[in-house]
UniProtKB/TrEMBL annotation:
Cofactors (names): Fe cation
Lineage of the organism: Bacteria, Bacillati, Actinomycetota, Nitriliruptoria, Egicoccales
Domain Pirin N-terminal per the UniProt entry, residue ranges: 69-142
Ligand binding (Fe cation): H76, H78, H120, E122
Family to which this protein belongs: Belongs to the pirin family.
Cofactor, how bound (note): Binds 1 Fe cation per subunit.
Pirin C-terminal domain boundaries: 230-313
Pfam families assigned: Pirin, Pirin_C
Protein's UniProt name: Pirin
UniProt cross-references to InterPro entries, sorted A to Z: Pirin, Pirin_C_dom, Pirin_N_dom, RmlC-like_jellyroll, RmlC_Cupin_sf
Keyword Secreted: no
SUPFAM superfamilies (UniProt xref): RmlC-like cupins
Taxonomic source organism: Egicoccus halophilus
Keywords, alphabetical: Iron, Metal-binding
Length: 346
């Protein structure tokens, strides 16, 4: 829907997969209220009646996705773009074809450059055997420019304690809690650097990823973007709604807004959550087929041929859906042997 409002350029209803604008390719919000875990870190609940291997039903408040025992996404390939996994609640176990592994959650982010090709698994182990295992995350795909589509695969961890989190007050003292996954909202508090070949790593692309929780009847103002070509999209979810200028954007809708001027979001009820994705478009042809995103159809065909021939390094794990056991710790073991580790997962 095209609007005449001065600030809101377009609104669209959100499906299960949220529509995005260049340089972003894909965004999905997973929000699952899993029950307590069993001895294999799967749900302690019957799985009968679910279409295991392709369960996106949301039955009883949760899905298994492609998992058969543990929820999640067993091994699958990517080429030509990046995945950003922002774990707001619960945990993700990463394993990949380079032999790297990670467990992260509770506000951590993994930013992975698929580049020339990688196979990875993303599983959601249910580590609490006594209580529910609420799991909430955003999975965001951001494109790579043609010059970087075939770089070496790589991932970087953005741990919760490193990510800027701001409490911003409106004129009446009502708070908005903002988490800055990419970019900068407050001077001197820039998000941790993305991987080196990311579009977001370039100084003139103005990539920003912000999560904002606006208090009831509170207001939050986004300042002007740093680049004149920046495209800024606001995703309103979790049932709230906001007023932007003369337009009300209700939960389950996205709004593309002007980025060259300040934009104020005012909650209209009991509080609102908003995800902001912004950036300067790459402006190149996009050809996507399944897990591969390139610039031409011939490159997609080559990606499939390369995967069938090399399996992007093979799969060094004994299972398609590995998890990292019951030890409550966050860690990352990179392909070069470097290890990051935190003894407590909370």
């Amino acid at each position: 829907m095209i609007l005449s409002d001065d600030l809101v350029l377009q609104t669209v209803a959100l499906d299960r997969v949220w529509q995005t604008v260049d340089p972003f390719l894909f965004c999905v919000h997973h929000d699952d209220d899993y029950p307590e875990g069993d001895d294999e870190f799967g749900p302690c609940a019957p799985l009968t009646g679910r279409n295991l291997g392709m369960d996106f039903s949301g039955r009883d408040g949760w899905s298994m996705y492609h998992g058969m025992q543990v929820p999640g996404f067993p091994q699958h390939p990517h080429r030509g773009f990046e995945t950003i996994s922002f774990m707001r609640k619960g945990y993700m176990d990463h394993a990949d074809s380079l032999g790297a592994a990670a467990r992260f959650g509770r506000g951590d982010v993994q930013w992975m450059t698929a580049g020339s090709g990688i196979v990875h698994a993303e599983m959601f182990p249910l580590l609490d055997k006594q209580a529910s295992n609420e799991t909430e995350l955003f999975q965001i795909w951001i494109n790579l420019p043609s010059t970087d589509k075939m770089v070496e695969p790589h991932f970087r961890m953005l741990w919760n304690h490193e990510i800027p989190q701001h409490t911003l007050l409106d004129a009446a003292g009502r708070p908005t809690e903002v988490t800055v996954v990419a970019g900068q909202l407050v001077a001197g508090h820039r998000a941790p650097a993305p991987p080196p070949h990311s579009w977001a790593s370039r100084p003139d692309t103005d990539v920003g990823i912000y999560h904002a929780a606006i208090s009831p009847e509170g207001s939050w103002t986004l300042g002007p973007a740093a680049h004149p070509r920046t495209v800024r999209t606001l995703y309103v979810f979790a049932g709230g709604s906001v007023r932007i200028g003369g337009t009300e954007v209700t939960g389950g809708h996205a709004a593309v807004v002007r980025s060259e001027v300040p934009v104020t979001l005012t909650d209209t009820g009991d509080g609102t959550e908003v995800l902001v994705l912004q950036g300067r478009p790459i402006g190149e042809p996009v050809v996507q087929y399944g897990p591969f995103v390139m610039n031409t159809k011939a490159q997609i065909q080559q990606a499939y041929a390369d995967y069938q021939q090399t399996w992007f390094g093979g799969w060094p794990w004994p299972d398609d859906d590995p998890n990292h056991g019951g030890d409550l710790r966050r860690f990352a073991r990179h392909a070069d042997g470097r290890v990051e580790e935190y003894a407590v997962a909370g």
